[in-house]
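Tutorial handout. Part one gives the primary structure; part two gives the three-dimensional structure as tokens.
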Amino acid sequence: MPFSGSECRKSDREPSQSSAPPSGPESGYAAAVDAAYRFLSFRPRSEAEVRRRLTRRFPPELIDRVIEALRNKSYLDDEEFARRWRLHRERFHPRGRRLLQRELCGFGVAREVIDHALLGMEEEENAYRAGLKLAVKLMSRDCTQEALGRKLYPYLQRRGFTYSLARDTVNRLWLELAPQPLDGEINSGRGC
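Part two.
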């Protein structure tokens, strides 16, 4: 999908036939295409999102023409959209498989496209990255393992990770971040 928001400028659009505003059915098509390009200029969208947006102002047969034209120009591709959404989430806002499925379903992406886009997803690493920042903050307060778990379990579950994965992530973070006691010293952490 060779689309990055800024590529969708007036120069990319189909030129009008004359300098006067077109009238008739083609003026509706041009307006629908312009509306679709404007909507796509902010971020990539799923086909269903564009269709929903255009439904507010244009008839279904016109929307079908616009959607087909956008598909032919590679501005609409649900598979690429789902893949890019997953990569963006993994990199900047890690989420679990369940939440990503819900988000993509909300965008109107088909279930089989979602399943294909989420193949090979490393949920363990996503959970680790999602919990790391909060864990570092909590550990700076001399936190116990139980207190860390009380804060991190629900935090990770709200981001779509299962309880067992959240538990494993909390244990991993505790082992990596907990201060190692000196000989005979007991960690008397107060909680977070």
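Part three, for discussion. The radius of gyration is 24 Å. The domain at 10-72 is CATH 1.10.10 (Arc Repressor Mutant, subunit A).
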